[in-house]
């Protein structure tokens, strides 16, 4: 495993970080608790020291399972990355920006973006309890909230750092303009954004900005929610309530299938999986500090961690980039 400092901070994280959205179950067709906990243990056993989650993942369930999984572990050797700013339980009392309607056990739950100082402090206390810890290594705003001034959100994060409840602060899904506005109040450690072989829009502006300002980029969906594994072109089937049924429709699936077959040839020569090849390629991109990789069980977690052992030559790297132009 390789470890990198996040932005200009002293927080060192594993390049492959355990992404804990899927183990929350909601939007992913459910989950098996023991498999989820085993996946976290396998990540830790294979050099992954960082775990990324959020209160919204499973409406608290993901954080709770992580808290259970790391019980008895050396906390100083684990980096917990979580978020705030999505409210679904009605506690916002009409405040915030409506985001979407989520479903839990047949019940519709309106989800709001809310990044006010009051809500941040409340959410942090709840996350600390679920995670069974007294500090969070990286606290991130989950989505921009247009109803709250950025300065108010950043001032609250600064306060939490001073109080020792969080070590560092970051954001998710921020534009360059929002990053610049936040920088007037606080120096952020990172910005977590969507990025993959099929979605490289951040290379136009966020990557140059991050390189210039020494800000880390944490990428989610590097596998495009499993599409780039190739398994959905074969025998694997999605459950009816899995959000990916609609998500995959945005891509030219025939072209993606052809590209994945190209990757399979390279992966075979390296005795690696396509997933490992994709994760390794992503980790080598400019300004990328962390690559989030989800896992539902120990086998997937182990495979993800071992992706950093895949050696890509410059020639192979260029070949993959050339093949991407055909998608």
Automatic annotation (TrEMBL):
InterPro entries: AKR, AKR_Detox_Biosynth, NAD(P)_OxRdtase_dom_sf, NADP_OxRdtase_dom. Residues 114-141 form a coiled coil. The keyword Repeat does not apply. The keyword Disulfide bond does not apply. One of its GO terms (molecular function) is oxidoreductase activity. GO terms for cellular component: cytosol. Residues 18-323 form the NADP-dependent oxidoreductase domain. Keywords: Coiled coil, Oxidoreductase. PANTHER family: NAD(P)-LINKED OXIDOREDUCTASE SUPERFAMILY PROTEIN, NADH-SPECIFIC METHYLGLYOXAL REDUCTASE-RELATED. This is Aldo/keto reductase. It comes from Chryseobacterium piperi. The lineage of its organism: Bacteria, Pseudomonadati, Bacteroidota, Flavobacteriia, Flavobacteriales.
């Amino acid at each position: 495993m390789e470890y990198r400092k996040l932005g200009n901070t002293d927080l060192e994280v594993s390049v492959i970080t355990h992404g804990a959205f899927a183990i929350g179950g909601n939007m992913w067709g459910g989950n098996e608790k023991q498999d989820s906990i085993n996946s976290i243990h396998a990540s830790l056993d294979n050099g992954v020291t960082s775990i990324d989650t959020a209160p919204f993942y499973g409406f608290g369930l993901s954080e709770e399972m992580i808290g259970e999984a790391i019980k008895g572990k050396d906390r100083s050797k684990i980096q917990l990355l979580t978020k705030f700013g999505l409210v679904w339980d009605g506690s916002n009392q009409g405040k915030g920006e409506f985001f979407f309607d989520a479903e839990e056990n047949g019940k519709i739950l309106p989800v709001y973006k809310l990044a006010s100082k009051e809500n941040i402090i409340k959410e942090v206390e709840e996350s600390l309890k679920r995670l069974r810890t007294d500090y969070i290594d990286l606290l991130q705003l989950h989505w921009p909230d247009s109803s709250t001034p950025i300065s108010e959100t950043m001032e609250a994060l600064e306060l939490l750092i001073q109080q020792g409840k969080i070590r560092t602060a970051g954001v998710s899904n921020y534009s360059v303009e929002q990053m610049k506005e936040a920088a007037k109040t606080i120096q952020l450690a990172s910005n977590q954004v969507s990025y993959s072989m099929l979605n490289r829009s951040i290379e136009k502006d966020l990557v140059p900005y991050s390189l210039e300002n020494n800000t880390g980029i944490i990428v989610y969906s590097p596998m495009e929610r499993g599409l780039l594994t190739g398994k959905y072109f074969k025998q694997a089937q999605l459950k009816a309530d899995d959000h990916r049924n609609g998500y995959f429709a945005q891509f030219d699936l025939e072209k993606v299938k052809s590209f994945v077959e190209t990757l399979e040839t390279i992966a075979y020569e390296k005795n690696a999986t396509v997933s490992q090849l994709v994760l390794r390629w992503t980790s080598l991109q400019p300004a990328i500090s962390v690559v989030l990789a989800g896992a539902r069980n120990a086998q997937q977690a182990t495979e993800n961690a071992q992706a950093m052992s895949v050696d890509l030559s410059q020639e192979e790297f260029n070949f993959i980039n050339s093949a991407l132009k055909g998608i």
